[in-house]
Amino acid sequence: MQRPSTLPAAAELVERIEWLIKLRWLAIAGVVLTLELVQHVLRLPLPSTPIWGVMAALALYNLLLAAVRRQLRIARQPDADEGPDAPGTTPALRLALAPVQLLQPWLALENLFRFLIAAVARRKRAGGPSWRRSTLADLLVPRELWGVDPQAVVFRAAAFASAQITVDLIALAALLHFSGGLENPFIFYSVFHVVIASILLSRRATYLEATLGFSLIAAVGVGELLGLLRHYPVGLVPNMAAYLNPTFVTAQIFVLGSTLYLTAYMATSISAGQRSYEREAALLSNDVARKAELLEAAYTRVSQAERAKSQYMRKVAHELKAPLGAVQMLLKVILDGLAGDVSDKSRELVERAEHRTRELAQLTQDLLALSRAREGTLAVEIAPVALGELVTDVVAQTQGLATQAGVTISSDIAPGLGPVQGDVAGLRRLVGNLVSNAVRYTPRGGSVAVRLQRTDSALRLKVEDTGIGIPEDDLPRIFEEFFRSANARSHTSDGTGLGLSIVKAVAEQHGGSVSVESEQGKGTRFTVDLPLK
Questions:
Q1: By the number of CB atoms within 10 A of the CB, which of 102, 269, 270, 502 ranks highest?
Q2: Cβ distance 203 to 142 under 8 Å?
């Protein structure tokens, strides 16, 4: 079994990032339509040239993202453990991921802060926390995704998402600057990017993206207030000089900041809980996949061992069949007197030898039948089999054995059964073993009933006797090779212990099943279901 080709965390990030690319095209189209509406319908003054420039730059970046997203889909491959700067990364992909480097100043400040805390802790007490430099991967990848997929693969996907959000925030700040600054009510659109960051990135990265968006928009407002940046009015507020009012600027910045950070807190809390559940599900899925792989490998080894065992058994039985037949024939020649007179003592010994040879020949035949059934359809000839006629024939052939044993045998074959597709030799041995066993293990005066009927999807054969039954403790082992229950061995020494193993193997070879019900001292019922194909 191969591992799943889709990694749960990385693949989901890729899908959401591709959705973000498509959503950006809608946003670009929306800005263009809004610009046309404002200029030609509302007749409000807007510097169209710089706005068109911002939108063109954003569109080019989205085209770049669309061009390199196929390289990002490497995250769907479980053996691809590559990061954004891994060998083979194209210049286009490096360019698409370049905005991630804007997070480096924050990362440097964070590492400095962590170093100072660790240093103070070590001075206060021995064995304080050790300091480890935090990387971009630690910063961007949600903690809940650590250890689920290869870290570098998830890092590339998270870096791709962070780069897009960073570019979007820069473009939004630029658009706000050219369309009224803090007077523009669309300054709160940055909230959407914080929500997206909470879905795709870690909690810290989400707060950093919120800080980036807040800093950029605040810089626009403060820059216009101080005269460092030109103000482009759009006439959306009654006071055209609101951008010069420190109270208005402060209030707008405060409301924007509190909104962004509250949104970051709530969204990351929800996303973290959801990702925790997803992590547990992914780890459980991986564990199940690994165990299934081990189970399949074990099953393959067992199947190979069974095939080897069956082939060896068949080969041995086949090699024994000819010499045993020759020995049996020679012994029969002696018993028939064709080789001269034989003393009574010698005859007794030869008869015993012939009986044992006959038992050994039966064992070889059973071994060949069992290996034939286990080797599947390659070892048999599949053809339509009139099972009703076959059962009638087997019962008729067993009648002599039943009469000799003082057992009554009867059959009840339902009409209009139709044929089954199967191996006639295997099915004849299945029926013969069940019927002969029933007669053999039924005391004199008992009875054996053979019934064949049709169910919704199968032909059902039942062989029921009033014999010695099977001890309850022996029932789970009754289909094992060479197994005979204690009461069966005491009842008769005849039998190889392979008959019921052959019955089970033939039934399974035909896609069917066999079951047994028995009570010691009262009788046994075997039920075989053979599907109609």
A1: 502
A2: yes
Q: What is the pLDDT of residues 488-499, one digit of tens each?
A: 877 776 666 778
Domain count, the chain: 2
Q: Are 262 and 401 members of one domain?
A: no
**What Å distances lie between residue 316 and 184, 311, 313, 319, 323, CA to CA?**
92, 9, 5, 5, 12
Same domain membership, residue 385 and residue 254: no
The answer to whether residue 325 is domain-embedded is: no
In a domain, residue 366? The reply is no
- Measure the CA dihedral 91/95/96/97, to 10°: 100
Partner residues linked to 408 by β-bridges = 447
CA distance 518 to 525: 6
| Residue at which a domain ends, from 274, 295, 316 | 295
Domain span including residue 469: 380-531
What is the SS3 assignment for 147?
coil
pLDDT at 389: 92
The answer for residues whose C-beta is within 8 angstroms of residue 79's C-beta and 6 or more apart is none
Is position 322 within any domain?
no
> Residue type at 257?
G
pLDDT tens-digit series, residues 312-341? 666 666 566 667 667 767 777 777 777 777
- The neighbour count for residue 90, using CB atoms within 10 Å, is 11
From residue 147, how far is each of 8, 142, 283, 297, 366 by CA, in Å? 12, 11, 9, 25, 55
Q: How far apart are the first and last CA of the chain?
A: 30
Other beta carbons within 10 angstroms of residue 347's beta carbon come to 14
Percent pLDDT > 70 in the chain is: 78
pTM (global) more than 0.85: no
Q: Residue 340 in 3-state DSSP?
A: coil
Cα→Cα distances 446→63, 184, 440, 462, 512, Å: 89, 101, 11, 17, 29
pLDDT in tens, 38-76: 777 777 777 888 889 999 999 998 888 887 776 655 444
Output 102 or 411, whichever has higher pLDDT.
411
Distance CA 485, CA 432 (A): 20
Q: Which of 227-236, 322-331, 426-435, 474-483: highest mean pLDDT? A: 426-435
* Among 295, 311, 333, residue at a domain's last position: 295
Distance between CA 177 and CA 217 in Å, rounded? 8
Indicate the residue type of 31.
Answer: V
Do 121 and 26 reside in the same domain of the chain?
A: yes
Tally of residues, the chain: 533
Q: Tell me: the pLDDT tens digits for 489-531? A: 777 766 667 788 888 888 888 889 999 999 988 899 999 999 8
Alpha helix stretches (DSSP H) within 344-498: 344-374, 387-405, 424-440, 486-491
Whether 475 shows a pLDDT value over 80: the answer reads: yes
